[in-house]
Amino acid sequence: MKLVTIQDLAQIVKKHGFENFMSDLVSYLKNDFVRWNEFDKSPRYAAHVPGGVLELMPTADKQYFTYKYVNGHPGNPLEGKQTIVATGQMSEVKYGFPILLSEMTALTGFRTAATTMIATEYMARKDSSTLALIGTGAQSEFQALAHRMVRPIKTIRYFDIDPLAMDKFERNLGDKGFNLVRCTSAEEACNGADIITVCTACKKHAVVIENSWVKPGVHINGLGGDCPGKTELDKAILFRGKVIVEYTEQSMVEGDIQQITPEEVKQVLHAELWELISGSKVGREEDSEVTIYDSVGFAIEDFSALRLTHDLAHKYGIGHDIDMIPPINDPKNLISVLDLHK
Amino acid sequence: MKLVTIQDLAQIVKKHGFENFMSDLVSYLKNDFVRWNEFDKSPRYAAHVPGGVLELMPTADKQYFTYKYVNGHPGNPLEGKQTIVATGQMSEVKYGFPILLSEMTALTGFRTAATTMIATEYMARKDSSTLALIGTGAQSEFQALAHRMVRPIKTIRYFDIDPLAMDKFERNLGDKGFNLVRCTSAEEACNGADIITVCTACKKHAVVIENSWVKPGVHINGLGGDCPGKTELDKAILFRGKVIVEYTEQSMVEGDIQQITPEEVKQVLHAELWELISGSKVGREEDSEVTIYDSVGFAIEDFSALRLTHDLAHKYGIGHDIDMIPPINDPKNLISVLDLHK
């Protein structure tokens, strides 16, 4: 089987090109999401621990089974460590053998941005040119670059409670042709924005975005309300317009819609993302609508990311072959790998 | 983080010694099982597919989170492939970062045998000298060698529907000092046995062992009744004596006790394995009792196996260091691993 480390993935992305990687990932995601009913779906497994959460996100279609391991520890950066680290594996369903083991920390950045890109494509106004980005952590540059691939984003208005995170954001994107407007509050960042994308890590019921800041016509990507007890949007925002989610069952537990009752969810929920891709539901219809993508991250997104990584690792011959499957001719002679006779 | 491949594990076992590895694993298992209430426990995640099953088995204590990926495809050997292949990962709970990625196919062989060894230690008659082994597949040699570490096993009476699997068993254990008695049926193998250990892979409700073959005083290790619709024991055997399981909630779905009602389970279930280790329940009390260990395999067993592998990999300096955690000083600067400026 193939092992793809961080350096391997960086090589793959360099060889393929960042934007090509992102747009191919969007294609893989769309191909997988429209086959929604072919997938084995379940809410993620989560072990909640004092400092955070440890999760497994499995899914399968008829050909592949994938899962991602990912943690979420909001206090990690205080000790110089990343909030999330992820790894994942892909197996063939037919025999059950693993074929790819991959880093998924960077891949999670990619797939979250690529999925947001799809939501933005269907939900944001076509002429959206100003993006408000609240939270300039690990995910922010992926988001900034992805948004520009589907909307004519000229200006990014950004805010983070950590000034160093804003400095870093500027260093990374200073030469990418954006008009970067550093703000002193989330409210200031939202002022005049066509799209508001929120991605913070604080594990509590926060009101990062207040209802009064959201003007008619705005599209919101709410990315950081993604586990029980962790929300970002003023609850009133959810009643402002069409809400879409990835997978209702999981989102009611983990998303910003955990703040409202099941009856209220029925009232505000417009579609699952795959229904926009398949065309069975439409996204934005009026320029004055408010639209909300309440994202939590779903296993099929990791499935698509692993599928693309697998294909590109083979295409470019990048990655390491590792012996994780016993190299034995007789499948019942497992103990022979231990050379007991020697 | 550390990667332990099949060859790495084989080296570790060679360096440490097969019996030392097995007995240390028994110690780790006992240390973990007695802390039963400290673990985050849940039944495994299983995706049932036409040819088999794909599973994730997570668990955690306050220090480590582990999971195993394992498939079970009974038809694989017909195509020269192993029935099960497994991999696993261990992370530190404090920060959520993975520290070990390991092969677990051979480790599953070890931990299943080591757990059976514990059940046998508490449940089998002290003077047990004849072992009946039904199924001489990948697990059989691990079992044979493990049983001898806790009981004075002289004779092994064995049967498999595949004669080649019996040939292989003889080649592997011919020089290990056992009196090997090849049988032409499971019934013949059980004749005169003190312990009956059954480990077959057929995914259906089979009656591999009939009630009338089980004489007073016998201990049964039922290892292959381990998923819904897959059982091995004549249901009547479950009413013959003390039944023990690893984790009742999971075993009622996956074990041989899936054949009986919850009320009947209450009636026959004597203890969970950890209660024998902690001393809160006793195992065998009379030489004439029939005792039954209905095993399905539980996540804590993989936890112990990964913990031991981690400790020995570091002790002997075996395994590969791989970059699966982004090597960045600023935890929020994830995108820097992609070198977008170059």
TrEMBL record, chains A, B:
Coiled-coil regions, chain positions: none
PANTHER family: KETIMINE REDUCTASE MU-CRYSTALLIN
Leader sequence residues: none
Protein name: Ornithine cyclodeaminase
A Pfam family assignment: OCD_Mu_crystall
